Amino acid sequence: MILLVLPAGLRGQAKGAFEVYRMPELSSGSDDMAPVIMSGGILFCSNRKVNPFLTKKNLEGVRLYELYFAPFNEEGKPGKPVLFAPNLGKDANIGPASVTSDGNTLYFTRNYLEGKKLKKTDSNKLGIFTAKRNGSQWTDIQPFEYNDPAYNLSFPFVSQDGRYLFFCSDMPGTLGKYDIYMCENADGKWTKPVNLGSTVNSPAAEINPFLHSSGRLYFASDRPGGFGGLDIYYTRLAFGSWTKPVLLDEPVNSEADDFAFYAVQGSYDGYLSSNRRNNGDDIYRFTNTIIRWSVCDTLKKNSYCYEFIEENALKNDTTNTKFRWEWNFGDGAKANGITSEHCYAGPGLYDISLDIVNLITGGIEKRQASYQLEILDVEQPVISSPDTIRTGETLVLNAAKSNLPGMDVARYYWNFGDETASSGLEVSKVYPLPGKYNIQLIVSSKPGAGGVVREVCVCKDIEVTANGN
Amino acid sequence: MRETRYIHFFILFLLVAFPLRVSSQEVPGPDENIPFLITFGPAGRVTSWGDDDFSQTFFFTIPKDYKDPFYIRIYDADIGGKTDELNNFWDTRMMYSVYGGKGCYTDPDAKGITPGGNFKSGTLLATRTFGMDNKLDERWFTFGPFNPADGEYYPKFSSNVFKIICDGISGDDGNLYRYFLSRRSDTNVPIQGANAFTYEYTFRMWNNNDTSFVSHIYPYIDSGCIYIKQRNFDWDSDGDFVVVSVERKGQSMPLSGEDQWTESRMPILDAEIGKSLDFRFYKKKGDLVRNNNVVISVENQYGENLQFFSAPIGGVPVYKPRIKVVPKK
Fold first, then answer.
1. What pLDDT is stored for residue A17 in this prediction?
2. pTM
3. Chain A CB contacts of B327 below 8 Å
């Protein structure tokens, strides 16, 4: 058993585990934002300057947003963006957009009025429209059935299974400046929009909803309590209700506006938009740096209990035997019988011996057999923690009882099962949401001969229940 | 000290490497801890005194490479005096006959447990009948010298085999006696590698009510033996009968009552093949069963009688417990 006194500095705190990189190949010096992946490239909206003849402006000369498509090259990197589907609207802001998983239907934001240059003071709110793929063209542009020119409906997002449509609006029933709504697909028709409610929607604005395959609904909000400006949060539907939104950590969020979180389905790599460089909105790529083993051993329980069998005696008919088998378990305990069970207090080397007592004469034949039993703890990393905890409470996880003989440990790495991680012999974690989390402890050695690093992993489920307070 | 240890190792080596060469020509053997053999006179055919057939046959094996003359000595060969068991008055005569030559062992009737047929097979080499004779009381009588070549050579033992039969001729007293196969006529000097055996053992238990008095006999389990059936007679329920072997500790067997037979079967373990079993007879504690004379024989699944060697083949079997430790889930 390893016994260590932890210096305070070894105690880790759970942190987000993303690395964020600006994507210069998609940046224009104007505003570039809200990327989504479609058809082997990235679709995003931008008010970039193209050329004096093609750049759309309103009457005051303000550039309007258009959709652009940057196809991936052979290395998987986005190439030079080109204007996407110019026929989606004339003299109107277009985007952000969302594409159904079959790639055949485009949901996009656009001003209701198009085809006519308007002044800035003219009312021309945003609505949601759809277009159908027709070869390389996008045609059959239709307004969303719940559009109302008196209100804004924007930021559409269709779930991967096509069952849900999320969007944002200031339509009647909105709780704050701008709320997230959801429609359900009922036989090809969208049900009446439902406000996600006050747990998700705040008096401030909520925009850019994105439902990830993990079940998390990411969105941006400028509500108080964030890092500043718009920040990215996520919520999750649990038992029919949306959970309290969780603020993503740095570097996903910053003091500037961070929004339009979009992760590749099935992973946690993706894109977001931010004006953190004070140079307009830029598109950033983020990668998940969290290590998680696909196969990790379950924490094995140390067992100090054994069954002792005198095998030869078992072969015989010992009914009415005139002898008695007496076990000395080597820790002071004794028991009688051809078979017996005993539990030791812990690991150690135990000298088991067997005396045979002649019940006729009373004579004792000492140490007729002996056995050296070495009990070792299971060679594994050990997670010491409670099995259950409530949301908002601090869970302390400790690896000090790890039994890894001969391993010169370089790092104890903790994956908390919610896309956060930490490292240290003892770490703490606060789960904002209830659920069952599979925690992995991955222990890495210092490089050995030939630079080989040994790694072992053990996992444990933690049940997080809702805090009633 | 070191030399002593070497000697101990050497003796151990001999016992392990040459188990058939163990040397015991004392009958009963020292490992058997049996005070006396016993044969009763046949008058009235009374078996309740502990002899079912008034006759006892023993065989001696002499290694083929032993060429010198040898003697068969009988302790307390007469019937009368301190040692023997009196019934009314001493009127019993007992005949001892030594046989060698072809058939003395291999004749099927010789291997029986009842005196019948051609059980006196082979060549009669010597015979003598005794009654009450104070000169022999608690003394040794000697037959011989005999030439080892006059025995029946039995290849499986690599030995010449001789037979001695003690027959009750008349009277009803009990004759208690012992044998010794000796190189000398006047003292008991064993022959290296010789042994003695019988197929039916009739003997006297200790006159004691102390369970520490344990008598043993050692049936030899030959290859092919699947189970054995033991039969014992007139044990007077005196104590406990327990079987021990290299892989068997304390299997209880039934003991007969007064003038009764009892029998039981016992399957043989693989590890017991080619070795001896240890039949242990513990005296009963409490009320003393005095002058308890008993009979026992063992046969295999084919009804073939098994030999009881005075010096157990393979040595006295020692039970070896084997510990297995299994982690509990």
1. 66
2. 0.61
3. 303, 305-307
Task: Determine the residue type at A432.
Answer: P
Please check whether residue A259 is in contact with residue A220, taking contact to mean a CB–CB distance below 8 angstroms. yes
Cβ–Cβ contact A366 with B under 8 A:
no
SS (H, E, C) chain B: CHHHHHHHHHHHHHHHHCHHHCCCCEECCCCCCCCEEEEECCHHHCCCCCCCCCEEEEEEEEECCCCCCEEEEEECCCCCCCCCECCCCCCCEEEEEEEECCCCCCCHHHHCCCCCCCCCCCEEEEEEEECCCHHHCCCEEEEEEECHHHCEEEHHHCEEEEEEEEEEEECCCEEEEEEEEECCCCCCCCCCCCEEEECEEEEECCCCCCCCCEEEECEECCCCCCEEEEEEECCCCCCEEEEEECCEEEEEECCCCCCCEEEEEEECCHHHCCCECEEEEECCCCCCCCCCEEEEEEEECCCCECCEECCCCCCCCCCCCCEEEEECC
Q: How far is the C-alpha of A250 from the C-alpha of B282, rounded, in Å?
A: 87
Measured over the CA atoms of residue B216, residue B219, residue B225 and residue B231, the dihedral's sign is negative
> Given an 8 Å threshold on Cβ–Cβ distance, is B323 in contact with A308?
yes
- For residue A176, what are its two tokens? 């704050």
**Rounded (5°) CA angle A357-A359-A365:** 20
Residue of chain A with shortest Cα separation from B328? A306
Confidence of residue A433 (pLDDT cuts 50, 70, 90): confident
Which is it for the CA torsion B122, B124, B130, B135, positive or negative?
Answer: negative
For residue A6, the model assigns a pLDDT of: 27
Instruction: Please judge whether B249 and A312 are an interchain contact, meaning their C-beta atoms are less than 8 angstroms apart.
Output: yes
Task: Spell out, as residue ranges, where chain B has pLDDT lower than 50.
Answer: 1-21
